[in-house]
Amino acid sequence: MESGLQELKFSRYNQKVELSGKLFLYNALTGGYASVDEEYRDNFDKCDFKKLDSMKELAELPNAIINQLMEGGFIIPKNFDEFNVIKSMHYRGRFGANKALTMTLIPTMNCNFRCPYCYEKDKKYPVKKMTTEVMDAIIKYVESRIDSVDHIFVTWYGGEPLLGLHEIRIMQNKLIELASQKDVQVSGMIITNGYGLTKEISDELVQMQIKTAQVTIDGPEEIHNRTRFLKNGEGTYRRIINNLLQANENLEVVIRVNIQKENIKYVPEFVDSLKQVGIDKRNNIKPYFSLVRDYEIDKGYIYSSCFSVPEFSEEESKLRQILLKKGFQPANSNIQPKLYGYFIEKQYVFIVPYICFKFFSCNNSVV
Description:
Radius of gyration: 24 Å
Organism: Dorea longicatena
Protein name: Anaerobic sulfatase-maturating enzyme homolog YdeM
Helix content: 25-40%
Strand content: 15-25%
Order of helices and strands: HEEEEHHEHEHEHEHEHHEHEHHE
Keywords: 4Fe-4S, Iron, Iron-sulfur, Metal-binding, S-adenosyl-L-methionine
Largest sheet: 7 strands, parallel
GO molecular function: 4 iron, 4 sulfur cluster binding; catalytic activity; metal ion binding
Number of strands: 12
Distance between the termini: 60 Å
CATH architecture of the domain at 193-333: Alpha-Beta Barrel
Domain Radical SAM core: 95-331
C-alpha cells in the first residue's frame, strides 16, 4: 500500500487517546472514532499526526485498515483542504435556509440562589419581570417571522426562570396559539436550578411543550450545598433530588455538573449517590459534566480552583467513563463535532425581561 499512501496525508484534526491501556483515534472534523487492535498498536504509536505527510508507519497495514482510516477521515487526499470544508459548513449554517426561529427569553433576572461562580452575582439579581410591553413586542416579532419558519424553539433562562412562571405561561401559550394558526411547531427547554421544579410544575411545562430541563447539581450533598445555596444560606440538594425523582417522565432532565478542582474528586461519590436514589433507572434523566468558566475574561476561567479548557479536556473523558461504568448514559453522548454559524439578527433572539428587543450573542453578555 506504500505507493498509494504517497497521495495521502493525515488529517490535521486527528487525536490519539489512551484509556485503560487501549489506544483510540478520534477525528474532530468528521467525528471518526476508532479502537486500535493490539496487532497494529505499534504502528499507530509511532505515527506523528502533526507531521501530516509522514505516512511511512502505515505502509505495512492491510488495505482494509487503510480504507477504514480513509472512511473515518483520519487520512485524506493530499489536495483535500479541510479548512475549506469548515468554512463551507460555517457559511451554510450562517446564511443557509434556516426555517427554525430560536429565541432565549428571560422572564426575570431574579434568583433564589446565590452561587459564588454565577455571572450574575455582581448584578444584584434585579427582581423585575418581563413586562406586557416586552411580551407584546416578542409576539409582534414572531408574527413578522412566522410565515418563513416551520419551528419555534424557546429556551427559558434567567435568573431563575421559574420565579417568572406566570410570564412563561402567558408567552408560551401565546406562541402555541399563534403557531397553531400557521401549522408551525413550538418546543422549548428551561434552564432552572431545580429548586422549584415540583411534580405539578413539571407536568405544566410538558403541557406547554417545554419538554427539556437543565438542572445543575455540583456533587454530593455536602459539596453541592457549598456552591448552590439559597440566598439565606440554606442548602438545596435534597429538594432538587426529590423534585427530579417526581418529575414528569416526559420531561427530559439534563443534570449539569459544574466541575472545578475542588469538587472533581467527589464525582464517584456523587454518581453513587444518584444511583442509590434510583436516578439511573429514570430514562428521562441524564447527567453531563461542564467546565466552570467566565467568557468575559482572558484566561477563560474565574479563579484558581477552576480548570482551564485544556485541563478540563484531559479530565472529561475520565468523568464520562465513571458515568458509563455506573450504568448512566451521559447526556452529551454524541461525539460528533458541532460546527455552528450564527448570524445573530437573523436566527437567534435573546430578550431580557425589561429591555424591549435587545440582541445578545451569548448569555454571559446579558446586563
